[in-house]
Design goal:
The complex is a heterodimer of chains A (612) and B (288).
Chain A: E1 4-12, H1 17-30, E2 34-40, E3 49-57, E4 68-73, H2 76-82, E5 86-95, E6 109-113, H3 115-122, H4 128-140, H5 144-155, H6 160-180, E7 197-199, H7 201-211, E8 216-219, H8 226-235, E9 242-245, H9 249-262, E10 266-270, H10 272-288, E11 292-298, H11 315-320, E12 329-331, H12 336-353, E13 356-362, H13 363-367, E14 370-372, H14 393-399, E15 430-432, H15 446-458, E16 468-471, E17 478-482, H16 486-501, E18 505-510, E19 512-514, H17 518-525, E20 529-534, H18 540-547, E21 555-560, H19 568-579, E22 585-589, E23 592-596, H20 605-611
Parallel strand pairs in A: 1-4, 4-5, 5-6, 8-9, 8-10, 10-11, 11-13, 12-13, 17-18, 17-20, 20-21, 21-22
Antiparallel strand pairs in A: 1-3, 2-3, 7-14, 12-19, 16-18, 22-23
Helix pairs in contact in A: 1-5, 3-6, 4-6, 5-6, 7-8, 7-12, 9-10, 16-19
Chain B: H1 21-34, E1 42-46, E2 61-64, H2 70-80, E3 85-91, H3 92-96, H4 100-109, E4 114-119, H5 154-160, E5 165-170, H6 174-186, E6 191-196, H7 208-214, E7 216-217, H8 229-238, E8 243-249, H9 277-285
Parallel strand pairs in B: 1-2, 1-3, 3-4, 4-6, 5-6, 7-8
Antiparallel strand pairs in B: 5-8
Helix pairs in contact in B: 1-6, 5-8
The chains are: A alpha/beta (612), B alpha/beta (288).
Chain lengths: 612, 288
Amino acid sequence: MFSEVCWQIGGEQGTGLDSTVEVFNTVASRAGYYVYAYKTFASRIKGGHTDFTTRLGTTRVQAPAPGVNLLVALDQETINLCAKNVYPDAIVLADEAINPTLPEGVSAKLLTIPFNKMTLALGNPLMKNNIVLGASAAFLGLPLEGFKAYASGRWGNKGEEFVALIHTAMEQGYAHVQANWPDLAISLAPADGKERLLMIGNEAAALGALAGGCRMIFSYPITPASEIAESLVKIFPKVGGIAVQMEDELASIVACVGAGFAGARAMTATAGPGLSLMQEALGLASMTETPVVVVDTQRGGPSTGMPTKQEQSDLLAMAYGGHGDGPRIVLAPGSVEELVPMTAEAFNLADNYHCPVLIASDLALALFQQTVEPEAVELAKLPAVSRGPVADPAALAALGRDIFERYSKNTNENGVSERSMPGMKNGQFLATGAEHGPFGKVWENPANRVYMMDRRMHRLRGVKTEAVRYFGPSEADLVIVAFGTTLGAAKEARAEIEQLTGKKVGVLQIRLIFPVPVAAIAKYVGNGKALVVESNAVGQFAFMLKGSGYNPANLASLLKYDGNLITVEEIRTAATRVLNGEAQFMVTGGGAGVRTSSDPTIVLESAKEAHV
Amino acid sequence: MATMADFRTSEKSWWCPGCGDFGVLAGLQKALVELGIEPQQVALASGIGCSGKIGNYINSYNLHVVHGRSLPAAQGIKLANRELTVIAAGGDGDGFAIGMGHYMHALRRNVDITYIVMDNQIYGLTKGQTSPTSDGGFQTKSTPNGNIEKSVNQMQLAIASGCGFVANGFSANQKQLVEIIKRALQFPGFALVNTYSPCVTFNKLNTFDFYKQEIVNLDEDPTYDRSDRFAAMKKLMETNELVTGIIYEDPNPTRYEDKVSGYREQGIVNQSLEVDPVLWAKILGQYK
């Protein structure tokens, strides 16, 4: 009995694998298993290799699996690319028609099944993937009834005959495995049967937006962010909201600033290239003290970079991007589940701090399905809407015209003053990207400039949010600092590292990327070492830590920027080396394992010498 | 009822004495007064350039945005609160150079806003470079040997893109301008009010006298049918867009807001942000 298994399927892009995997994952989730599902895909629609991997467990799984138990290969390329990642005793199930061969050195059992022949006999090419599902269910001990029930629900509107054909295909796949390989089951321990949710991060962000009072999204299609708007365009008609596909990201962010100025909770969702285009208007929001929320699903950069590959390389652009100095808040979710309350909270922060709030999602969080506990997304438990300082319309009306100071020195503890919204009598003011005085009128007086700049920036000093979350023992010898997708692997690696080294190891999740919560980080790291794990080439978060006053002496770093996810094994290796005093700065990926590098945050060799 | 004084601010103008933009500002204020609109019900988004400063001088809710983006800002405001009167304003460079992408899409999206362009055929605030509406051969600081590019025909573009209301005014013809702006503000859908608003400092070619001499005034032509889209295009081509009045007005106007699924009459900003637990449960059910 396995407490977790890993199923992988590969073939040509555009052959319906997406929906096959969706069926598999949903049925497994309904059976009560925790799911973490990831994929390799290219920026094209038809053709090219694609593979999907689903890790199932009786407890939470939150990172790529170290190996695969059952690989279903629909073409030889899948075997060539994926077989090296299977466990030694794994099963590789391939279509007989492709005359499959295993690469040298792979000890897994290669089994063939006449998928094509069976599909032809059923008379419908769509049935191939259903035979695959039936066969997979048989190997993994998943209930065939669950698959059949799903098909009835999902395709019932296409007629009984069609559903019956799907059922037959699933049964045939199942029966074939049972008849031919009765002793080769990869038995997964029974699940608790609890009903959980399964979704991608982009869907979670959309749910969080809805709960957080967001009623407007202005966006432009981009991988891997598009599903946020695609989810909201279905939801918003039910609540009187609106999702507009704009002509570009410039228009998207400016429309959000307009909507925010008008008093709505508006958002945009984008990825690196869009974020670059939005920088000027993010400055406008900072300058005019207008709330706006941006979700950035980071992908490989710069420029077009790698649109379908993982990276966390927009941190500096989110926190400091654009010209001039302006306040921004940057949050990072550590799981799909967390994206729901965090996105809702982002709107509260934007309304309370009157500045842009960016959510640093990443490709793997955005697009990969994860289990969500229903308790975590109960409406009553999500952050209640808090609109921040807003002028009282009655008081404003009684005030008389030309008296309301939008940028008044009468600020609250966050350094923010009341705002008026169009429609409020006597609240009229000028919100301008030009430097301005208390009424909003353009004013370049030096003393005013200093006041206004300080006023805007100082609000970042006390951003009230759960900035970090710590997992592990107090006074750890090593604290792994992680955020976004990387957090899951770090959490899974933690106990393994302790076991391996006998040292105390903690994981510190960074939820507030900017302003960098240096004091909280220092408190949890204590006298231990901090290993910052991030998916970029220059150690952007390590750089931000140093620049925010964090002591660089106890800072170690592991970087990966080959487009793949950081694995448990890589973190374990790097952490062990830091604990053994063997390495401080490391990179991994690109076909090689964890290796020592020089400090990635320092470019010049001469500076490195000076630093020493 | 609001008066002209209610729509003025205490800000001293940064525009040059004699600038055409004074006339456009006055025309807009007068139109708002005559329509009985209150200052707090007006939101104006303006771009960068001399004309973008218009928001400094009108007592309404003003959002002075980055260069070229008055239209997305105005659409954002309007869709957030459709109960407001929303105006976008800017110059020819702001609208038809850096902002051209937004212009084309605002025309075809057709959100119920009024776009007032103060066209002086020159870059004024940067002190005299060629603009996308500058005439061929026009000598400027950036085209010392004369402009070798063709000028944008923004009104023809508007008609071609399906804009339901296309008008052109002249800063010096207040009476006509006020009537045009009033009609534009009342038009349900995207309304373009181009205006010739001469730059007295940097454009010595397209002066007040030049326009007075060259402009064809449609109000003086009782046979002109403003509901005829083909006639509108023809008139614009014939006059090289040196024509004022309401050039085209769709007799059966529609607007974006009427086509949005589930969009309500009440402004989004005036609706509750609470989520119905039944709806929430239903949406979550899709992920089970």
